Every structure is written in structure tokens, then in C-alpha cells.
């Protein structure tokens, strides 16, 4: 039975395989991954990741609540964010999560007050801004001095002075996150160098850290997803093995989001009209920036495929959504001759796709379909390309 478009389609087998590849790339028993829930918070995605033994990296009280409701152990939950509300801190502290990653000296005072109310000791990691260029899109760069995130390295001493004043805070770790969609691994090596300096400074002040959290950020191949459905986790973890100086018993935490879920999700849409414009032919589809905002927000490229046509001869199309904004475009691409009713597949949409959707223009939100519930071929009412579709 065909499914109403647009909808998100998730390949759970690919998700499992990605998780498996990630785990087998970890050679160090002290390396631990917390999945960044912000990338995709659909129930079965989270359950699959939890069942694989990962922890949860949360950025809101609701993410913490959802993680706990789905069975993540609070011991495996970390919480970051520069603007945590009192209610959110309350949720974090009352559930005794593993680490509150504190982003300012001012926040320390508030966390202490709330922990005191609960008669608890809050486990703290300092999120430090390492001033390392992630060499990625400026809108998803987070670890430079000009960015709002983290405690500047120059304030580290003052932050230590402050935390030592508070009885309800325990400094357990440090946290860094330099940005997202990072494909060149050198910035991670630079991060390790800065982290080593921070760890040494804290050690010199008599502070022994239990964990070093190096954030997330590993990128995926948007241009040619089929050439690399699973990111190169080995190379990624090797950088930290090689460059991070650790003391006995210290654990390293990673917060991967996109690299785990990016390729397992696609946005499926139908062509409403093919219209001849003055300069190009528009394929107007029923998915738009309300379903996937990355192209509008970051000029991001997502590969678009026509699932209904098999012809070898390609023509240029400008694939656009129905929303009343010129930024509502999925870009110009070559497709076989496309007609009304064709199904289009927007690839690599598993991360920061559905979570960032809105109901602008009072549009309905796209449904969620999982591969073990219905095959993609049956979702689009065609068994014709079933074999090729199942690999996605
Ligand atoms: N940890 C922290 C503190 C973060 O801020 C993020 C992402 C992550 C971990 C996970 O990073 P990942 O492994 O997924 O790169 N909406 C943008 C991406 C924003 C990323 C925000 N922070 C996009 O669609 O490209």
C-alpha cells in the first residue's frame, strides 16, 4: 500500500551496520560513545542505538526525559548547552545524570543552588572553547573564540577557583566540541593538542579528571552516499588514540550524531508539477524546507534521485519545494525525464532532517516509516525497483 508523501524512510539494517562498524573501530576499552540525540530523536532510532549500548548526549530537559523514558540509564546521559534553564537543570540533577557540561562560570553558581535544593552533588565537566578551527561550514563551527560555546581557555583558572567554592559540585571532566560535518581529521588532532594542555593545567592544580569528552563532529559523504554509506570510524578514533595524552583510568567520551544516523534516513517525496521556467525546468516536489531545512539554512547539498524513472538520458532540473520562499530548493541536478507523480528520494537525510522540521505554512509533518515495517518499494506502490531500493 503506498504511503502518503512526503515521509521519512529509515533503513534500520544500515543503522545497525553503522553501529556495528563504529563499535568494532574502537580498540580502546576506555573510549565510550554518547549518541547526540539532537541529530535524530525518532523512537526506534533511539531504541536501536540504546540497545547497542551507547549513552545519550542531550541538549535539553526534554531530550533527557525522552532518553530516560526509552530506557537509557541516567549514568550514561550527559547534558550540554549554553542556556540551560532552571527546570532543565532540575531534571538533570534529580535524575542523577552522569555529567552536566557547564559552559560558563555563571552557570556553576546556578547548578550549585539547584543541587543544594536536591541535597545532591552535581557531576560537572567544564565545556572548554579550545579555539580550534573545525574547517567546516561557519554556521556549524562551534570551537572558535568568536563562538558562543564553552568557557574560554583564558577563564579556566577562574572557573576552577569558582567550582572549588561550591560544596554541591564535583569536577569530573572536561568537554570540547569544535563543530559538525568535519571531513578533514586534522582539526581533531589540533583539538587533542589543546585538550592535552587543558588536562595538564588542571592536573597542575591538583585536579584529576575522570573523563575527557571530545564531542562529535565526524562528517558523512553527502555528494556520493553510496560510495561510503558507513563513515571511516577507524581513522577517526585513531586520531584520538594517537594524539590524546591520557592518565591511567581516564575515559574518553565521544558525542557522535550525524555519522551514526545520517545515511540511514531518506526523505521520500512526489513530483507535483514539472514546469518550464525562463531559465530552467523546475521539478516541484511535495517536500520542502519544512521537512528538510538543511539546503535552505546551510546551502547544504543532498543527492536527489528519481525512483520512478530508469532512463539513462539525463536532463537538468531545478528541484524545488512548494513553500513560499526562494530558499525552498533542493538544488539543480541531472535526472531522467521526470513527470508528475514520480517519486523522489532525497538522500542522507537521517541527521538534522526530521528533528529540524516545522509546520510553517501550516503544513503537516512528514510521517516516519522504518524499513522492517514496510519496504520502500511497497511504500511507493512499486515493486519494480525493489532490489535497488532495499540497499538504501
Ligand atoms: N556535541 C555537541 C555539544 C554538539 O553541539 C553537537 C552538534 C554534537 C555533539 C553532535 O555533532 P555531530 O556528530 O552530529 O556532528 N543542524 C546542523 C548541525 C548542527 C550540529 C549541532 N551540534 C546541520 O544540519 O548540519
Automatic annotation (TrEMBL):
Species lineage: Bacteria, Pseudomonadati, Bacteroidota, Cytophagia, Cytophagales
Post-translational modification N6-(pyridoxal phosphate)lysine, affected residues: 38
MF terms in GO: diaminopimelate decarboxylase activity
Domain Orn/DAP/Arg decarboxylase 2 C-terminal: 7-350
Catalytic activity: meso-2,6-diaminopimelate + H(+) = L-lysine + CO2
PROSITE patterns xref list: ODR_DC_2_1
Native organism: Reichenbachiella carrageenanivorans
Keywords from the named record: Amino-acid biosynthesis, Decarboxylase, Lyase, Lysine biosynthesis, Pyridoxal phosphate
Catalytic activity, EC: 4.1.1.20
Binding residues for pyridoxal 5'-phosphate: 217, 255-258, 352
Quaternary organization: Homodimer.
Domain Orn/DAP/Arg decarboxylase 2 N-terminal: 17-261
Protein's job: Specifically catalyzes the decarboxylation of meso-diaminopimelate (meso-DAP) to L-lysine.
Residue numbers binding substrate: 258, 294, 298, 325, 352
Cofactor requirement: pyridoxal 5'-phosphate
Domain of life of the source: Bacteria
Protein's pathway: Amino-acid biosynthesis; L-lysine biosynthesis via DAP pathway; L-lysine from DL-2,6-diaminopimelate: step 1/1
Assigned protein family: Belongs to the Orn/Lys/Arg decarboxylase class-II family. LysA subfamily.
Principal EC category: lyase
Stated name of the protein: Diaminopimelate decarboxylase
Keyword Cell division: no
Amino acid at each position: 500500500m503506498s504511503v502518503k508523501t512526503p515521509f521519512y524512510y529509515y533503513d534500520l539494517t544500515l543503522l545497525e551496520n553503522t553501529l556495528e562498524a563504529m563499535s568494532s573501530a574502537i580498540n580502546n576499552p576506555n573510549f565510550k560513545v554518547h549518541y547526540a540525540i539532537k541529530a535524530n530523536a525518532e523512537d526506534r532510532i533511539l531504541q536501536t542505538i540504546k540497545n547497542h549500548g551507547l549513552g545519550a548526549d542531550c541538549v535539553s530537559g526534554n531530550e533527557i526525559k525522552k532518553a530516560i523514558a526509552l530506557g537509557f540509564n541516567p549514568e550514561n546521559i550527559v547534558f550540554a548547552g549554553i542556556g540551560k534553564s532552571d527546570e532543565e537543570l532540575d531534571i538533570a540533577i534529580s535524575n542523577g545524570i552522569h555529567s552536566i557540561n557547564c559552559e560558563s562560570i555563571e552557570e556553576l553558581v546556578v547548578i550549585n543552588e539547584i543541587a543544594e535544593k536536591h541535597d545532591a552533588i552535581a557531576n560537572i565537566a567544564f565545556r572548554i572553547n579550545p579555539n580550534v578551527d573545525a574547517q567546516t561550514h561557519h554556521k556549524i563551527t562551534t570551537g572558535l573564540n568568536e563562538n558562543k560555546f564553552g568557557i574560554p581557555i583564558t577563564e579556566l583558572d577562574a572557573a576552577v577557583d569558582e567550582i572549588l567554592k561550591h560544596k554541591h559540585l564535583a569536577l569530573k571532566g572536561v568537554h570540547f566540541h569544535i563543530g559538525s560535518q568535519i571531513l578533514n581529521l586534522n582539526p581533531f588532532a589540533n583539538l587533542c593538542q589543546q585538550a592535552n594542555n587543558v588536562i595538564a593545567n588542571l592536573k597542575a592544580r591538583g585536579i584529576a579528571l575522570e573523563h575527557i569528552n571530545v564531542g562529535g563532529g565526524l562528517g558523512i559523504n553527502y555528494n556520493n552516499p553510496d560510495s561510503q554509506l558507513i563513515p571511516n570510524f577507524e581513522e577517526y578514533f585513531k586520531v584520538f588514540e594517537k594524539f590524546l595524552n591520557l592518565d591511567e583510568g581516564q575515559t574518553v567520551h565521544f558525542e557522535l550524531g550525524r555519522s551514526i544516523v545520517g545515511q540511514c534516513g531518506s526523505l521520500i517525496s512526489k513530483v507535483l508539477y514539472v514546469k518550464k521556467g525562463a531559465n530552467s525546468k523546475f521539478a516541484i516536489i511535495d517536500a520542502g524546507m519544512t521537512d528538510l531545512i538543511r539546503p535552505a539554512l546551510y546551502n547544504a547539498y543532498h543527492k536527489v534521485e528519481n525512483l520512478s524513472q530508469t532512463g539513462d538520458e539525463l536532463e537538468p532540473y531545478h528541484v524545488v519545494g512548494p513553500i513560499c520562499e526562494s530558499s525552498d530548493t533542493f538544488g539543480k541536478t541531472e535526472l531522467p525525464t521526470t513527470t508528475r507523480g514520480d517519486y523522489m528520494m532525497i538522500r542522507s537525510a537521517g541527521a538534522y532532517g526530521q528533528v529540524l522540521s516545522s509546520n510553517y505554512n501550516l503544513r503537516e509533518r512528514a510521517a516516519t516509516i522504518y524499513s522492517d515495517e514496510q519496504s520502500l518499494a511497497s511504500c511507493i506502490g512499486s515493486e519494480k525497483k525493489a532490489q535497488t531500493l532495499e540497499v538504501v
